[in-house]
Amino acid sequence: MKISGYFKLQNNNIVLITNYKQLKENQFDNIYMSKVFTDTEIPEWVLKLPNIKYGGTGFFYDKAEPLPNYIEHHMPDYHLYDNWVSEQISNGIKKLDFRYYTDYSIGFTTRGCFRKCPFCINKNYNKVEIHSPVEEFLNPNRKYICLLDDNILGFSKWEDVFKSLQTTSKRFEYKQGMDLRLMTDKKAKTLINSKYIGDYIFAFDNIADKEEIEQKLKLWRKYCTTTAQTTKLYVFCGYDRNNKWDYEFWVQDIKDAFERIKILMKYGCLPYIMRYYRYEESPYRGIYINLARWCNQPSFLIKKSFREYCEVNGDNSSTMRYMREFEKNYPDIAKKYFDMRFEDLNKYNKI
Questions:
Q1: Residue range 307-316: mean pLDDT, rounded
Q2: Scanning 101, 183, 248, 332, which has its CA 20 to 30 A from the CA of 138?
Q3: What pLDDT does residue 227 have?
Q4: pTM attached to this predicted model
Q5: What interhelical angle do 210-223 and 185-193 show, nearest 10?
């Protein structure tokens, strides 16, 4: 969107390519392609076109080259997707599904993180730094603001950022998982008193942070008592920090995921399962699939235990097969977690 915005201002004609067939005619002076996820497949011939330039984390992960400053700090072209969105809606997809294309200004106020998590594309950063003022990507005709900052709560001048957001009089949200370990009374009050929209999203990536996360959830719940907005935490699993990837790891990782889910239920929060791609190698791959389908659909999670969710899929389903196999091999884990229910554990606000 920033590339498009820049070149439109240079009086160029810009076209959004939505399928590779359009590239075969190749009537363009320049083609720009980005990719976010490494597993997105792209035909080899496309990347061999003489006039294509491509980049992004999907191609180069943490080594992705940044955009030139004159483009990075250009106003995004918020009309780039207009025709595509209209086509999708005319094909029967709900307009609400495209709200980030139509109703939000999108950008980063800060970039970077100091945590250096080995699985993260931000591991090369040493700190959180200011990136751009809100005005740089703010479209006054759009009702909301979506922030993609890597670790806003880790920025030394976070208050200034929130003040600048408040002065826009627009509701805003942070889509990345905020660092709950950095929560303070002041930060909690600021978040709760802001013109926030959507879920409050944090992260619970490592069971080793259990005690600290519980302390911060208690602090957070002193201020977040409303039922109007949900508190959600990303639960990252399937990544072996010891780089062994053996049977012992897979079982312990599944147990740790269930334990984190239990903790979040206790504080009336929704877990959202994020699977590292190597979960596909697990002998209990199916349990990871079941966990994600159960947790990532709140209508299931808040009404049914893990076992009840699996049973709904039918006695002969793969869902039940995965559950039975794991329970047979690890009955103690199943006994502790398979029948826990959100409504029984939740001590705080009801969803």
A1: 97
A2: 183
A3: 64
A4: 0.94
A5: 50
